[in-house]
Amino acid sequence: EDLTGAIPEEFYHMESLAYLELGSNALSGTISSRIGRLSNLEWLSIFGNSFSGTLPTTLSNLTSLTYFSASRNDLTGPIPDKFYDLESLTSLKIQENALTGTISTLVGQLRSLGWFGIGGNFFTGTIPTELAEIE
Question: Which UniProt keywords apply (predicted)?
């Protein structure tokens, strides 16, 4: 709980990394687009920090990702459409940020999703009926 600063660039060279748990610290900065280099990542938890900026579209490169938690940060902007390509994702926890926009109908592509935490943001529009396509 005492880690501060940004995620070091060296992390993005650890291509065999499968689990990254950095929750409940005082980390800050943006989520680098280089996160997409971690192609073996299955678990990414950065909740409870002070990350800002948008969710990088390169997260869609993490095709093995099953768990993503970025709750309780200062993230802004919409969920990128490419994010919905993460078909292995079973848990998506992005509540309590400042995310905006609508929940895309593409959410139906996340067929393995068992946890979809989006509360405490600034999303608008309706709940897509495509959510019913999730098993």
Answer: Repeat
Report whether 54 contacts 76 (CB < 8 A). Answer: yes
Report the CATH fold assignment for 4-133. 3.80.10
Distance CA 108, CA 119 (A): 18
Nearest to residue 23, comparing CAs of 2, 54, 52? 2
- Per-domain boundaries in the chain: 4-133
- Distances in Å between the Cα of 48 and the Cα atoms of 27, 30, 52, 62, 111 are 9, 14, 12, 21, 27
What pLDDT, in 10s, does the model give residues 76-112?
999 999 999 999 999 999 999 999 999 999 999 999 9
Q: Which residue has the tokens 């060296």?
A: 10
pTM: 0.95
For residue 96, give the nearest of 119, 78, 127, 115 by alpha carbon. Answer: 119
